[in-house]
TrEMBL record:
This is NAD(P)-binding protein. It comes from the Bacteria. PANTHER family: AMINE OXIDASE (PTHR43563), AMINE OXIDASE [FLAVIN-CONTAINING] B (PTHR43563:SF1). Residues 118-356 form the Amine oxidase domain. GO terms for molecular function: oxidoreductase activity. InterPro entries: Amino_oxidase, FAD/NAD-bd_sf, Flavin_MAO. Pfam families: Amino_oxidase, NAD_binding_8. It comes from Marinobacter orientalis. Belongs to the flavin monoamine oxidase family.
Length: 365
């Protein structure tokens, strides 16, 4: 049993940034409880593919989100600068490809360039997770502890967590920061007394960003598409990928990635090998025979992540409403606060949303 001032549930970007912010304010009496052994939540890298360190030598490519926009996501930009992380612009030079029908060859058209530009972090977005972790007290990060129950135990909240062996542990905190998607909180955590019905329903109906999606990455020795005057970007009505981009690292390996348009419930009935083969075949169809033999291939199906997605996320509406951060009355008022990206008021569904939600959440109490 441990007593702390603040308990943070989840060690993704929101949870680690919350700890970083607390320490900057001089608050060191906290604990982070993370269900998995690997930190980062929805920020994931090929260096941890299948939960193991990378042994392929291909380096860190983003299996989750890759971009942010400093021009208007200023809090996120400030954090990246504060952590002294190197950034570079997403490659978008050249034409893009459109695949309208299986009966027609890909159509080459003028590429689309984001303005303001999409930016990436050198070494991959997981570099941000590593940088935050290095700047907080690692002894306060407890891995492999899935929080199952929150119980009011005046003057504290009791958090009951469980490890992989089924052993349970208790922490007692004055306040709980929920660095998880609202739907996952409502699905996997029980509250005693229960949350207000209206709030529980609101959290349950909030779609989880990334949860229904899957991403394929192919790594090559050279960005051969650039030699063809292509940006690496493509859109397809044929599939299995519907949106494709250049994923090459700065001064390093060349890569392409794509988001699969195959629904999660359909993907669950297809083997990973079949999906990879279909994605590789699409790259060959679009970019030519040089795409036929990648150095490495990765696929990440977020719908299979039990600490990200629920059954409800198998078919997502894609809507991102603005759920209440915390109960406005009752036993849980001023005791629990949501700080995951879905609780953002400005950037819900983006990395910057986690930063915004944490800042708002900390300010609220």
């Amino acid at each position: 049993m441990q007593n702390v001032r603040i308990a943070v549930v989840g060690a993704g970007l929101a949870g680690l940034y919350a700890a970083y912010s607390l320490e900057k304010k001089g608050i060191k009496d906290y604990v982070i409880l993370e269900a998995r052994e690997i930190l980062g939540g929805r920020i994931a890298s090929t260096i941890h593919s299948d939960g193991k360190p990378d042994v392929s030598g291909v380096g860190g490519f983003d299996l989750g989100p890759s971009w942010f926009w400093p021009a208007f996501q200023t809090d996120m930009a400030r954090l990246v600068d504060e952590l002294e992380l190197e950034t570079f612009q997403q490659f978008e030079t050249g034409d893009m490809l459109l695949e309208r029908s299986s009966n027609q060859p890909p159509e080459r058209t003028r590429g689309y360039v984001n303005s303001p530009p999409s930016m990436r972090i050198a070494g991959g977005m997981y570099t941000l997770i590593d940088a935050l972790y290095r700047r907080i007290d690692s002894a306060r990060v407890v891995r492999g502890r899935a929080v199952r129950h929150l119980r009011m135990s005046e003057p504290h909240v009791e958090l009951v967590s469980e490890n992989a062996r089924g052993e349970t542990f208790s922490h007692f905190a004055e306040h709980v920061l929920l660095a998880m998607p609202p739907r996952l909180v409502e699905s996997q955590l029980t509250f005693s007394p229960a949350l207000p019905d209206v709030l529980a329903r609101q959290w349950r109906e909030t779609d989880t960003w990334m949860a229904p999606h899957a991403k394929y990455i192919a790594v090559f020795d050279q960005p051969f598409w650039r030699d063809q005057g292509l940006s690496g970007e493509a859109r397809s009505a044929v599939g299995p990928m519907v949106e494709i981009h250049d994923a090459s690292t700065q001064g390093g390996k060349a890569a392409l990635f794509g988001f699969l348009g195959v629904p999660a419930d359909v993907r669950s009935r297809v083997s990973e090998e079949e999906l990879i083969t279909a994605c590789r075949t699409q790259f060959v169809r679009l970019f030519g025979s040089q795409a036929e033999n990648p150095e490495a291939e990765f696929i990440k199906d977020w719908a299979k992540e039990i600490y990200i997605a629920t059954d409800t996320d198998q078919r997502s509406s894609g809507d991102h409403p603005m759920p209440a951060l915390s109960p406005s009355s009752g036993a849980w008022a001023n005791r629990v606060t949501g700080i995951g990206s879905e609780w953002s008021r400005e950037f819900t569904g983006y990395l910057a949303g986690a930063i915004d939600a944490v800042n708002r959440g900390l300010y609220s109490f």
